[in-house]
Design the sequence.
């Protein structure tokens, strides 16, 4: 009875002999070794087979490299050619994406035209192990599910993975409502889920997003939506509970010469200065960015030339965290063009909105010596008050049974207070 091992040896010997016979005529790609990535694949891994070797000259190249699964054999067909070049061996690696395979042993058979497979026999086989319970959902942490910071037509899912790319090949997130209807869906672009990744979900054209906290579930699929993996829920709130959203204003030169100069940028809301700074482009650095933190609302960004740049094609704009793309526009000399920015437009009336004072809530005022005074007009105790800087970092937390409190800050800028009545934005600017 012929064993699997002897059959594989006979098939390999036949392939080697036939390739040698063909190679006597002409060989353009000499195969030295074969690698499988990952080295110990499971059912949940997307497999890539790398064929390493040498091309016969500096002008030789691979015309095509295809594969076909025939039972337990991965049949790879490679065609090489050489239109002419220097007669020197040129190292080359051809990578063939196989994708996911069911658990079991596999053989690799390589043939084609103008190639010679001299890789060791043991490299022509590999084993795929079972995936157990499937993707390791316990390794994922959904940090947030919230509106895209600059548009109400998309959502952002921020996820961390304690085991990078563990069992989540070609992932896609889907947000469903309580009835199981699709609200938003990700277009698959990643091969796996990294240790810290951000995924954009576009809203379904017929989706109706409930206001505030609603019942819904977040699903994760793998393999281009072929296999269901994980589920989270049932409570969803798309407006973050933080006081502000991190924003990165920037300027960049897109080419056509070096741009060297400085630029002053400002962000205002209804004429009130919210943030400002200066960009600088040098011969070594053709882009610059800053960071600020803004509560939900409508803003205007303006960039002015402090001096005319030496050249280039300039563009200014804002991004969110992890390079989530925001609005941008060409930066032209002359009269600056204001650029509108809407930050978390759908969250303006949410829990993290900066509340206006109507006489019954906590009163916040600033003094000429950079002090922030907090008081309750009714004389009720303030309780605990939190103070944050412009990028959301905690400065101090104070608790009192009295009806007034004082915070002394050392620099001008934007600050945020969290009180029992909500959040308050404070602009400190010494005259």
Sequence:
């Amino acid at each position: 009875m012929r064993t699997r091992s002897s059959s594989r040896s006979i098939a390999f010997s036949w392939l080697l002999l036939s390739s040698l016979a063909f190679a006597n005529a002409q060989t353009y790609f000499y195969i030295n070794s074969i690698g499988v990535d990952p080295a110990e694949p499971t059912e949940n891994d997307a497999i890539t087979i790398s064929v390493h070797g040498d091309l016969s000259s500096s002008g030789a190249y691979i015309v095509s490299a295809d594969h076909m699964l025939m039972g337990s054999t991965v049949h790879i067909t490679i065609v090489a050619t050489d239109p002419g070049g220097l007669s020197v061996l040129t190292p080359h690696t051809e990578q063939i994406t196989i994708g996911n395979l069911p658990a079991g042993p596999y053989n690799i058979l390589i043939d084609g035209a103008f190639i010679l497979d001299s890789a060791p026999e043991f490299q022509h086989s590999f084993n795929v192990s079972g995936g157990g319970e499937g993707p390791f959902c316990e390794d994922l942490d959904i940090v947030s599910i919230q509106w895209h910071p600059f548009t109400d037509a998309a959502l952002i899912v921020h996820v961390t993975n304690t085991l990078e790319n563990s069992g989540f090949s070609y992932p896609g997130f889907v947000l469903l409502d309580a009835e199981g209807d699709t609200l938003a869906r990700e277009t698959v672009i990643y091969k796996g889920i990294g240790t810290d990744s951000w995924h954009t979900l576009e809203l379904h054209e017929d989706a109706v997003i409930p206001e505030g906290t609603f019942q819904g579930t977040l699903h994760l699929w793998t393999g281009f939506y072929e296999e269901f993996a994980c589920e989270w829920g049932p409570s969803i709130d798309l407006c973050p509970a933080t006081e502000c959203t991190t924003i990165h204003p920037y300027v960049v030169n897109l080419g056509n010469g070096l741009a060297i100069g400085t630029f002053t940028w400002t962000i205002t809301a209804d004429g009130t200065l919210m943030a400002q700074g200066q960009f600088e482009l040098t011969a070594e650095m053709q882009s610059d960015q800053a960071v600020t933190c803004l509560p939900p609302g409508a803003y205007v960004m303006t960039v002015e030339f402090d001096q005319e740049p030496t050249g280039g094609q300039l563009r200014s704009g804002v991004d969110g965290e992890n390079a989530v793309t925001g609005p941008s526009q060409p930066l032209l000399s002359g009269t600056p063009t204001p650029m509108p920015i809407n930050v978390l437009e759908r969250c303006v009336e949410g829990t993290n909105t900066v509340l206006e004072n109507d006489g019954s809530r906590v009163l916040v005022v600033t003094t000429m010596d950079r002090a922030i005074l907090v008081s309750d007009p009714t004389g009720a105790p303030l309780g605990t008050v939190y103070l944050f800087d412009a990028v959301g970092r905690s400065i101090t937390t104070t608790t009192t049974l009295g009806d007034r409190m004082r915070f002394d800050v050392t620099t001008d800028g934007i600050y945020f207070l969290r009180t029992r009545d909500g959040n308050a934005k404070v602009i400190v600017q010494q005259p």
Notes: The helical segments are 4-25. The longest helix spans residues 4-25. Residues 164 and 194 are 5 Å apart (CA to CA). DSSP finds one helix and 32 strands in the chain.
